[in-house]
Design a protein that fits this description.
about 5% helix
Length: about 350
């Protein structure tokens, strides 16, 4: 009997304790969801697996559900100031493999994603060649064929676009498949008038011009030109005057220091003439177009009259390794006359 009383007293004490203690009363409800722990989806856009030295890329992260904080890391080290969903990186990276990590946070939770990239040495600049690079004593209405070859193209380039201008107003382009960093095509053209023309070809990747090449085409028989020596600076040296036909003059600059630049002044008077400067051979650094009175405008002067007879071109080129340059003058028709002078100077 005594034991029963003790049990009843203990039960009553337990009831009193649970009903009177505020600490044991419920204060709310606990709801669990799929975001506890927080598991966002992180995706990147704009990242590259390879990047040439000193180039940059911008990476953007899309995080869902959205986080409160962003922190970017390079090879395990925090990137100072990189605390948004976008990161521009690359200009200071060394050659080799790197790991880019993004850590995002929401409350006390953290989640991360990363990708690897490789910084590679700068590739050799793309080159472009035209073969043949020079045609002399060509004839009108004869079709000439040129092979265009691009080399050292970027490793990830699958197509390249060739663009060309034959110098008589005829232009065209073609997209060519790249194989082993090279691409090639052939183009053909017939000129309808005696003159000197500059074939200009460029290649591009759809955004940037990668290389440019030139070819010099002389249709018609050239007059015997003159060889000149340009030996002084800051002084105009006059060439012999001329007239109808095609004249090619050669100027020796072997005594002048490398780096000096060259100026040209000319006068074609009223009947149109054209002045073309090459340096080095095959590279046209200046083409005056047909210069003379506008009343001569017509099919005899392809491309039209570019300006009055008198003109000049300053700092056309700087002296490099080649020790001479050429000037071709085209006198468009019988009775024309022209003159020109050259000057070398320090830039």
């Amino acid at each position: 009997m005594k034991k029963l009383k003790l049990i009843m007293i203990f039960a009553m004490l337990v009831i009193i304790l649970f009903t009177s203690c505020d600490l044991l009363k419920p204060t709310g409800t606990l709801t669990l969801s799929a975001t506890d722990p927080w598991l966002p989806t992180i995706t990147f856009s704009g990242q590259k697996t390879q990047l040439e030295k000193d180039q940059t890329m911008t990476v953007t992260a899309t995080v869902s559900p959205a986080p409160d904080t962003y922190a970017w890391y390079l090879d395990g080290k925090a990137i100072s100031g990189a605390t948004t969903n976008s990161l521009t990186i690359g200009s200071t990276l060394e050659i080799g493999t790197h790991v880019i990590t993004l850590i995002v946070g929401k409350g006390d939770y953290r989640s991360s994603e990363e990708f690897s990239m490789e910084v590679i040495p700068v590739a050799a600049a793309a080159t472009l060649a035209i073969n043949p690079a020079t045609i002399t004593n060509g004839t009108i209405n004869t079709t000439y064929t040129f092979t265009l070859t691009a080399a050292s193209l970027p490793a990830n380039l699958t197509q390249v676009k060739f663009n060309w201008n034959f110098g008589d107003g005829t232009t065209d382009s073609e997209t060519v498949t790249v194989s082993n960093k090279t691409a090639s095509t052939t183009i053909s053209h017939a000129y309808t008038a005696d003159s000197a023309y500059g074939l200009v070809v460029t290649i591009d990747d759809g955004t940037n011009t990668l290389a440019t090449a030139y070819a010099s085409i002389l249709i018609g028989t050239a007059n015997a030109g003159t060889n000149y020596d340009l030996t002084v600076l800051d002084q105009w040296t006059a060439a012999n005057s001329g007239g109808y036909g095609i004249t090619v003059d050669t100027w020796d600059i072997s005594t002048l220091p490398n780096g000096v630049v060259f100026d040209l002044k000319f006068d074609a008077y009223s009947m149109p003439d054209k002045f073309i400067v090459e340096y080095p051979d095959g590279t046209i650094v200046y083409n005056s177009g047909w210069r003379g009175d506008a009343s001569y405008e017509g099919p005899k002067y392809p491309g039209g009259i570019a300006g009055i007879g008198a003109g000049q071109s300053l700092a056309m080129f700087a002296k490099g390794t080649q020790q001479y340059f050429k000037i071709t003058i085209i006198g468009g028709e019988s009775g024309t006359a022209w003159e020109y002078s050259m000057k070398a100077r320090q830039p």
